[in-house]
Amino acid sequence: MSSFSLLQTSISSSSSAFFANHKFTFNSRANNASLPAKPISICKCVATPQAEKTEYKTQVSRNGNIAKLQAGYLFPEVARRRAAHLQKYPDAQVISLGIGDTTEPIPEVITSAMAKRAHALSTLEGYSGYGAEQGEKPLRAAIASTFYDNLGIEEDDIFVSDGAKCDISRLQVVFGSNVTIAVQDPSYPAYVDSSVIMGQTGQYQKDVEKFGNIEYMRCTPENGFFPDLRTVARTDIIFFCSPNNPTGSAATREQLTQLVQFAKDNGSIIVYDSAYAMYMSDDNPRSIFEIPGAKEVALETSSFSKYAGFTGVRLGWTVVPKQLLFSDGFPVAKDFNRIVCTCFNGASNISQAGGLACLSPEGLKAMREVIGFYKENTEIIVETFESLGFKVYGGKNAPYVWVHFPGRSSWDVFSEILEKTHVVTTPGSGFGFGGEGFVRVSAFGHRKNVLEACKRFKQLYK
Question: Does 12 fall in a domain?
Answer without folding.
Answer: no
